[in-house]
Amino acid sequence: MNDAEVIRQADKALQELEEDINTYHPLAWYIAWEPEAAGKMQELIDFYELRKSQWMRLLAGADEIRRKTVLELMRCADLEIEGAKSVLFMIRGVA
Amino acid sequence: MQTENIDIDRYLNYKGPDQVVTSFELSDILAQSSEHSLCVKSKMPTLDRLLESFESGELIAISGPRKSGKTLLAQSLTVNFLPIKSLWFSYELTMKQFLRTFPELPLFISPLKLKAYSLPWLKERILEALFKHGIGVVFIDHLHFLFDLVRAKNTSLEIGQVVRFLKSLAIEYNLIIFLLCHMRKVDLEKEPTDADVRDSSLVSSESDTGLILWRLVDTENQAMVKVAYSRRTGVLDKAFKVAKINGLLREVQNE
After folding, report:
1. CB spacing of B130 vs A60 below 8 angstroms
2. The Cα angle at residue B151 between residues B165 and B119, in degrees rounded to 5
3. Above 70 in pLDDT, residue A10?
4. What is the pTM assigned to this prediction?
5. Which stretches in chain B have pLDDT values below 70?
6. Closest chain A C-alpha to B214 CA, distance in angstroms
7. What is the pLDDT of residue B134?
8. Could you tell me if residue B14 is inside a domain?
9. Chain B window 56-85: which residues touch A at a Cβ cutoff of 8 Å?
10. Is the CB of A9 inside 8 Å of chain B's CB atoms?
11. Contact A23, B137 (CB under 8 A)
12. Is residue B93 part of a domain?
């Protein structure tokens, strides 16, 4: 895979991530902290776990540019998961 | 059979990641996904023609009688696969000895220390190498260091479990895994087959490709490599000649 293709794929993944955040981030729903949001939080966690496993599959045979890009994307997903878990903890009162 | 408690709508509306779909839907989904697939060439013309390439998700068993050149073949592939990086678990030789066997040290990844008989440890180091170096290929030399032969109740079944574990790692992380396996004592004059793999026929049935080597005893440095089976290309029992040239195996013309 050449550099231009790596950059194109990274741009696409970042765009998807931005769309994901707009779609799944609790602030975008205006319903965070409500009991009915618990299901959505779990949905968000599952969604990012799925994304992480998809991104992880890009690491095999990755050059430095792709490896670092994928690791950044996975860290972003971790932050979203952590945020969702915090909200879930606030709602349910248990981890 | 009880049917009164079945929630029909739950099944009709199920949209989970494991939902059932038609073959046409599956084909569309796969066409839309930008699934990354790693393909590497051996740079041995006959092998590349027979297998097309080695692909991510595959488990390849390399087997042969003792001193037939299994490790040498794996080392040669390590060099030929570059710039795709390989992770090595070389249990048979000390690190010092292992590094010395390369005529010129290529780039590969290896744990500083090895831990035998631990699949969770093996998985941890594979993930570490994937995150730190983006490896694409794993070499394990050899199978009998992955489970404790002394404690094994049923060797054949335990080997089957190990091989299945490795295959699932290859699929999950998009890796190509090479597993070196010993053979039981075979007649050096006779061409070995995958039925000669020590302790288990499960190695051949669970791996995607089987490569078998044997030395040509009347020559100084030549051996045969046979693609005993390839699940993907359907190749069966096709062999070609290799020779040790400048410390690595290279394909040579059959006379």
Report:
1. yes
2. 25
3. no
4. 0.81
5. 1-4, 32-35, 149-150, 152, 187-189, 198-200, 254-255
6. 30
7. 94
8. no
9. 56, 83-85
10. yes
11. no
12. yes
- B5 inside domain: no
Predicted local distance difference test score (pLDDT) of residue B143: 83
**Range in A65-69, A86-90, B8-12, B157-161 with the lowest mean pLDDT:** A86-90
Domain boundaries, given as residue ranges, for chain A:
3-92
**Are residues A57 and B136, on separate chains, in Cβ contact within 8 Å?**
no
Q: What is the pLDDT of residue B160?
A: 84
Question: Tokens 């430095």, residue?
Answer: A64
On whether residue B11 sits in a domain, the answer given is no
Q: Tell me which DSSP letter residue B109 carries.
A: B
Domains: count for chain B: 1
Return the pLDDT at B240. Answer: 93
Q: Which two tokens stand for residue B249?
A: 């195996």
Domain holding B216: CATH number? 3.40.50.300
* Chain position carrying tokens 């739950």: B10
Q: Which amino acid is at A30?
A: Y
Torsion sign across C-alpha atoms B243, B246, B248, B250: negative
Q: Does the predicted interface ipTM exceed a cut of 0.90?
A: no
CB-based contact A61 B17, cutoff 8 Å: no
Four-point Cα dihedral A71, B18, B15, A76, nearest 10: -10
Q: Which of B228, B251, B241, B232 is nearest to B61 (CA)?
A: B228
Chain segment B81-97, per-residue pLDDT in tens: 999 999 999 988 888 88
Tokens coding B199? 């302790």
If you average pLDDT over every residue of chain A, what do you get? 75
Output the CA–CA distances (angstroms, integers) from residue B144 to B117, B177, B238, in the order listed.
Answer: 8, 16, 27
**Are A62 and B56 inside 8 Å of each other by CB?**
no
B220-224: which pairs have CB atoms within 8 A and are 24 or more residues apart? Answer: B221/B245, B222/B252, B223/B68, B223/B69, B223/B249, B224/B191
Amino acid at B95: M
Give A32's pLDDT tier (boundaries 50, 70, 90).
Answer: low
Task: List b or e across B139-171, with b for residues whose CB sees 16 or more CB atoms inside 10 angstroms.
Answer: bbbbbbbbbeeeeeeeeeebbbbbbebbbebbe
